[in-house]
Amino acid sequence: MPSDLRIRYDVDVRRAAAELFEEGYGYHAAATVLALPPSVAKQWCYKFGAVGLDGLLQMGGRQVRYTYEQKLAAAKAVVEDGEKVPDAMASFGIASRSALLKWCKAYREGGAEALRPKPKGRPRRSSTAKEEPTREQELEARVRKLEAENAYLKKLAALRAEKSLRTGRRQRP
């Protein structure tokens, strides 16, 4: 069992799969020989073809960040030039098939601008929110506060009157 719990299969299993891929085995045959799920062997086959043995063995560590230009070039090659996904992965050094497919979908739907990086996190407050209220706005806020206070006091007086009617005693002021 691997020491890093994020990695499901050991380096030796991945190395054996790479040797089978080099010998000409397909992912289905390699999955049968190594007793792996075919979906895992298929991912490894694509990754091996794209980034080679080193990329396959270092799988499961940190994620690779791709620039806007790399994403755009790879998506254009697949969508416009008709290059196959495994070939584009190999030529552009992209380790993840699913990432390339996402980029292609975004490129088809929104063009090159859809691949631009988007700002992360919560947006900053605008400068208009920091502006001080005008004298009129301050007065309106004060009037609303006083009206709410007045309504509260009226409701309190009504509740006290109702309670004194029910009990038959007069409440102290």
TrEMBL record:
InterPro entries: InsJ-like_HTH, IS150/IS1296_orfA-like, Trp_repressor/repl_initiator, WH-like_DNA-bd_sf. Residues 114-140 are annotated as: Disordered. Pfam families: HTH_28 (PF13518). It comes from the Bacteria. Residues 117-127 have a biased composition (Basic residues). Residues 128-140 have a biased composition (Basic and acidic residues). Gene3D superfamilies: Winged helix-like DNA-binding domain superfamily/Winged helix DNA-binding domain (1.10.10.10). GO terms for molecular function: sequence-specific DNA binding. Residues 70-124 form the Insertion element IS150 protein InsJ-like helix-turn-helix domain. Belongs to the IS150/IS1296 orfA family. This is Insertion element IS150 protein InsJ-like helix-turn-helix domain-containing protein. It comes from Adlercreutzia caecimuris B7.
